[in-house]
Each structure stands twice: as structure tokens, then as C-alpha cells.
Amino acid sequence: QVYAVFSEELKCWCRALVESVRCQADGYQLTCFLLDYAKYCSVASENIRVLAGAFAKIPPRAKKCRLHCTKPLTLHIDYCENTAKIGPAKRWDTAAIQHFRKLLE
Length: 105
What we know:
Blueprint: E1 2-7, E2 12-24, E3 27-34, E4 39-44, E5 48-50, H1 53-56, E6 73-78, E7 83-88, H2 94-104
Antiparallel strand pairs: 1-2, 1-5, 2-3, 3-4, 6-7
Keywords: ATP-binding, Helicase, Hydrolase, Nucleotide-binding, Repeat
InterPro entries: Tudor
Domain Tudor: 3-68
């Protein structure tokens, strides 16, 4: 379901999908994907609203996507044997993400 959330970073209301909900001492914190900005943000539960009929049906400007058959790699360093090898990783590292974003720009 699509919601309207207030983004503190953008200082405006945005359409979003809720990814996860965390309980905190002062209330609930939601991790949301902003449909028109292709960004993730954290939003307090008091800053979320249900969208009315027609607004929820507007197609998003951004879509979540993945690179087909592309797996993350990382540099594995073995200090004992003084070697470094590129091998599979569970997640993309920050440097790889920044490099990919620069290539897109």
C-alpha cells in the first residue's frame, strides 16, 4: 500500500512504501522507500498518512530494480599469507555503491 510520509530531509510530503517498522522509546520509526525520489528514509509514525483513492493510483516515478545476474564482490585480505583476492560478498560495500552512482551520473 502506498502512503504519504513527511520527509525531514526533503521538507515535503512524499509518496512511499513502508519497508519496516521499529519500536523505539518515543514511538514507532518506519523505514520507507520514497516512490518519486528513489530514496530510503526513516519516518516517525506520526508523519505517515493513508493516501486517498486517486492519489494512490498515480504511477511512481522511481522503481526498485536490481542488476540482472550481478553479484557483489569484495576484496578478501589474508594478513597471515600476505595475499589479497577478490571474492563473493553478502552485500555491496560502500565504495562499490559510490562508484556505481558516479557511473550513472
